[in-house]
Amino acid sequence: MKRRVLTLLAAISLAALVLGGCANKEVVKSEEAVVPKAAESSVAAPAKAEAKAESAKPVETAASLDPTGAKQAAKAAAPVADSSLETVYFYFDKSDLRQDARNVLSKNAEVLLKAKPNAKIQIEGHCDERGSSEYNLALGDRRAKSSLQYLITLGVKADRLSTISYGKEKPAVQGNDEAAWAKNRRAEFVAK
Amino acid sequence: MRIYIFLLIFLVFPVTVFAQNGYVEVTAPGNHLLKLAVDAPVSFDATPNPVSAREISDVLVFDINMSGIAAAEGRDQLPPQSVTTLADTDLNPWKNGGYDLLIRSAYSIKGEELTVELRLFDVQNSNLMVAKRYLGRTGELRRFVHTFADEVLLDITGTKGCFTSRIAYVTAQSGNKEIAVMDWDGHIPLPLTKNGSINMNPDFAPDGREIIFTSYKRGNPDLYRRALSNTAEIPLSSRNGLNITGTWSPDGGKIALALSKDGDAEIYTIAKDGTNPIRLTISQALEVYPAWSPDGKQIAFVSDRLGKPQIFIMDADGGNVRRLTTSGSYNVNPRWSPKGDRIAYTRSMGGFQIFTIRADGSGDTQLTSEGNNENPSWSPDGRFITFSSKRGNGQGLYVMRADGSGQTRVSQGKGSYSQPAWSRN
Fold first, then answer.
1. Half-sphere exposure of B201 (CA within 13 A, CB side)
2. Is there a single domain that holds both residue B137 and residue B199?
3. A30 at the B interface (CB within 8 A)?
4. For residue A71, what is the domain's CATH number?
5. Does residue B100 lie in a domain region?
6. What are phi and psi of B200, to 5 degrees?
7. pLDDT in tens, A50-86
8. Residue A135 to residue B288, Cβ atoms within 8 A
9. Whole-structure pTM value
10. Which of B201, B213, B218, B260 to mutate to test the interface with A (most CBs of A within 10 A)?
């Protein structure tokens, strides 16, 4: 069962690699069918717009998005994010990998394959503050796992990777606006 | 109920069944709101104890007012009466004062020994309705008075109150997230976990003696079980990935929870000792937050299989899945009422608000509108819903009637409180 899911996810990830940003159209479509309320879309829309604008920019922009705040927060916690591995960011209520996320993961995979071939990494999935705590734990879990699957697709051995979700329990930065939320919807890479 | 409490029932007259006298629950529109006076408690002892007297009065007024059966107020004696007249209280001054009901009480405190005697009178018909005497320790004062308030509700409405029940919750006062319990009215907070980690989603066992909760104390979000009388935290489910939103089945035999050991978070049941996981949901989506129906035959849960989180119901074996919530694009935190008729949940609509909906999907009703409100949990008698709310200062725990009226902050002081779970007895 697990194998099949892994294979399936790997296949999806590969398809995503080939098709660029189009891989998760299915998910988005079904979501829109369930969003009849104007109130809700006014919440989600700016998030999406902003996030899309980010991902449209070159990868360097996504990297510069990585806020010093995030690193400080990570330092305060017991495990320290591996500074050679960049953080990956997500759209609101999504766990599929944006183009900038795939680029970051490719770089991270290269580090793990060449510079640090023995490092064991735990991928931490995080969410912004807007979802419910419990749903966000599951969403963070899925973000960490989609990052993990992509690294495996790129050749990193599965036994070097593990995941954990913190939901919205450990925000990288404080704040109640899209700038803060965008920095908190992330997967971090922590040396085990 | 502890064994050393004696509960002596003083049946001076056969108590009339008040509910049949035309008194009905006052939450229905158009009904006359009963006026209830809480007479200043008197002391059996030579030296009165004003603090205890005040506490008796405050507990009665709070419980009765929250119940909505009457408007209660603490009053000085009309006229001042001695202890010896408790049995044959002159009701005429109260009748003239416009009251329908009167509670008189007396207490004695000798060292650690406490005696409390309470009486409920039907002022208009000059009847003694309920009379009780409680003997125990001084620390049990509030509980004795809550117990009497339970009896008052039983007598007037035919359904006992829930005022001796407790609420477990998460407190971030220490900077971490720890589990604690308190009386339903926010008094007598009792810290449970002290592990300095993230602890979440407490849920009471049906007998009220144990809780389960998720903790990161060993790194992974694992499910633990702990007796309230004990500090031992027993790991129940430490499976790879999430072990979250655990909730006891009504008969206490099983626990439903979300596990992500096989990929996305899915709903499982495990035995109460943590063994024998049975997967109930199979989907490409994520599923969390199971909620048992009171007969244990169905489970409501959150799934984003349609793209956004919505609440679904399935049979307890995982079959017959159907969608419950069809309005709103983000519905989470289902909790089934003890009567089984309604399901409370949280909707995200810009902020979070509490709703209830009938189990058949009809009667969707918004109960809160001020601030951000999450994690509804029913009182054991179904009269109330507790929830966490960000309104004004910080995040507190609130209680409201099941129709949304009487929203009252019960958590004490400042600080951040969340994820309240009402005990089931």
1. 30
2. no
3. yes
4. 3.30.1330.60
5. yes
6. -155, 165
7. 444 344 333 333 333 444 444 344 334 456 677 889 9
8. yes
9. 0.83
10. B260
Same domain as B253, residue B191: yes
Looking at residue B44, which CATH number applies to its domain?
A: 3.40.50.10070
pLDDT by 10s per residue, chain B, length 425: 333 333 333 333 333 333 333 344 434 345 678 999 999 999 999 899 999 999 999 999 999 999 999 999 998 766 666 655 677 788 998 999 999 999 999 999 999 999 999 999 999 999 999 999 999 999 999 999 999 999 999 999 999 999 999 999 999 987 899 999 999 999 999 999 999 999 999 999 999 999 999 999 999 999 999 999 999 999 999 999 999 999 999 999 999 999 999 999 999 999 999 999 999 999 999 999 999 999 999 999 999 999 999 999 999 999 999 999 999 999 999 999 999 999 999 999 989 999 999 999 999 999 999 999 999 999 999 999 999 999 987 899 999 999 999 999 999 988 899 999 999 99
Distance of CA A8 to the CA centre of its chain: 19
Chain B closest-CA separation from residue A8 CA (Å): 11
> Which of A4, A30, A126, A134 should we substitute to test contact with B (largest number of B Cβ atoms within 10 Å)?
A134
Of the residues B157, B189, B207, the one at which a domain ends: B157
CA distance B353 to B334: 12
Among B126, B157, B188, identify where a domain stops: B157
Please say whether the dihedral angle defined by the alpha carbons of residues B345, B418, A47 and A27, taken in this order, is positive or negative.
negative
Q: What does the DSSP 8-state code read for residue A112? A: I
Question: Smallest CA–CA separation between B95 and chain A, in Å?
Answer: 51
Is the Cβ pair B286, A138 closer than 8 Å? Answer: yes
Contact status of A10 with chain B (Cβ, < 8 Å): no
Work out how many domains chain A is built from and give that number.
1
CB contact under 8 A, B349 and A37: yes
DSSP assignment string, B209-259: SEEEEEE-TTSS-EEEEEETT----EEEE--SS-EEEEEE-TTSSEEEEEE
ipTM of the complex: 0.90
* CATH number for the domain harbouring residue B348: 2.120.10.30
Q: In this structure, are B149 and B186 located in the same domain?
A: no
Residue B22's domain spans which residues?
6-157
**Helices A133-153/A2-19 angle, 10° precision:** 70
Q: Are B269 and B280 in contact (CB under 8 A)?
A: yes
Could you tell me if B221 and B135 lie in one domain? Answer: no
CA diameter of chain B: 72
Residues B130 and B201 in one domain: no
Domain count of the fold of chain B: 2
Indicate if B126 and B269 belong to the same structural domain: no
* B176 & B48 share domain: no
B393 & B273 share domain: yes
Task: Report the residue from A27, A36, A137 with minimal CB separation from B221.
Answer: A137
Amino acid found at B90: D
State the residue range of the domain holding A126.
2-191
Q: How far apart are CA B381 and CA B164, in angstroms?
A: 11
